[in-house]
Design goal:
Elements: H1 2-10, E1 17-21, E2 28-33, E3 38-45, H2 52-65, E4 74-79, E5 84-90, H3 99-112, E6 126-128, E7 131-133, H4 141-159, H5 165-176, H6 178-181, E8 188-190, E9 199-201, E10 207-209, E11 215-217, H7 220-229, H8 234-243, H9 250-269, H10 272-281
Antiparallel strand pairs: 1-2, 2-3, 3-5, 4-5, 6-7, 8-11, 9-10
Helix pairs in contact: 3-8, 4-5, 4-9, 7-9, 9-10
């Protein structure tokens, strides 16, 4: 921490106080306080999760360039000599969201999803939480979802002995049917981890988005995560549908889109998330 403090002095932020705060299950988080400003500091080990924060900073910049969402400014990102990596962000003052805020969020997500690409994937592998996300480019969603998302996570769960060969075979059968499950759409820029904890209602009356796991994927993935963990007002979903209606039978596809975030949570937290995974795979 002393080395971090020395870095802060070099940034000329005039830090008077460092307050530990709740920052999730993954990183150590602090509020940095100066005379008239606040900043957000995240810390983690560098060797265990190489370039975790550098990739996050690049993703925030990519979202900012779409001019759809507010993202906190990156003030500094780097590593120390004693195996720490850090990310210093603009502090976001939060407020209770209104229905208008929720409506704007839905519209902004729909506009964000209008950023498309010729292929599914991203220009680098990145992280969702502390799990590495392969982002090899593919021409089809079924190929991408199979080989960059479902199968790698099934292998990780099997290595932890949380699932059996039976579930792996079921997942393989599911993947063989993906072309018949998801409608064909252009690869869409998605946040990748769009749950309630990664959106912040601000005092300016808008939402800021944080902690992206960005890639060009299927737009239903963002909405599936939003519905999986709750906390979104119905106004958000209605506003999205007005701008960019989902294809028919999207509710039937929902569990398949939610499988990947459930695999991530089963790997990180085990418990009933493993049962949720098994329930989805039982149908295959």
């Amino acid at each position: 921490m002393n080395e971090i403090l020395e870095r802060l002095k070099q940034l000329d932020l005039d830090i008077d106080n460092i307050v530990p705060i709740k920052g999730g299950d993954i990183n150590d988080a602090f509020r940095l306080e100066s005379f008239n400003k606040k900043y957000f500091l995240k810390l983690n080990t560098a060797n265990n999760f190489p370039d975790l924060f550098k990739k996050e900073a690049r993703a925030l910049d990519a979202i900012r360039k779409t001019e759809t969402f507010y993202t906190p400014n990156v003030l500094n990102v780097g590593e120390t000599d004693n195996n720490f990596q850090y990310l210093i962000l603009e502090w976001i003052e939060t407020a209770e969201p209104t229905l208008v805020n929720w409506e704007n969020l839905g519209r902004n997500l729909a506009k964000f999803h209008q950023n498309t690409n010729d292929k599914f994937g991203w220009n680098e592998d990145n992280y969702i939480s502390i799990v590495v996300q392969p982002n090899n480019f593919t021409t089809s969603w079924s190929d991408f979802y199979t080989n960059n998302r479902i199968i790698p996570m099934m292998k990780l769960l099997q290595n932890k002995q949380l699932i059996t060969t039976k579930e792996v075979k079921a997942a393989t059968r599911l993947c063989q049917q993906l072309d018949n499950i998801f409608p064909v759409e252009k690869p869409t820029l998605i946040h990748g981890d769009f749950w309630n904890g990664n959106i912040l209602a601000t005092k300016d009356g808008e939402f800021a988005v944080v902690d992206p796991a960005i890639y060009y994927g299927h737009r239903e993935m963002d909405l599936a995560i939003a519905k999986l963990f709750g906390g979104f007002d119905d106004t958000f979903f209605d506003a999205y549908q007005e701008i960019s209606p989902l294809e028919n039978n999207h509710e039937e596809r929902l569990p398949i889109a939610q499988l990947f975030p459930l695999l991530i949570h089963a790997y990180l937290f085990e418990g009933y998330y493993v049962k949720d995974v098994q329930t989805i795979l039982k149908k295959f």
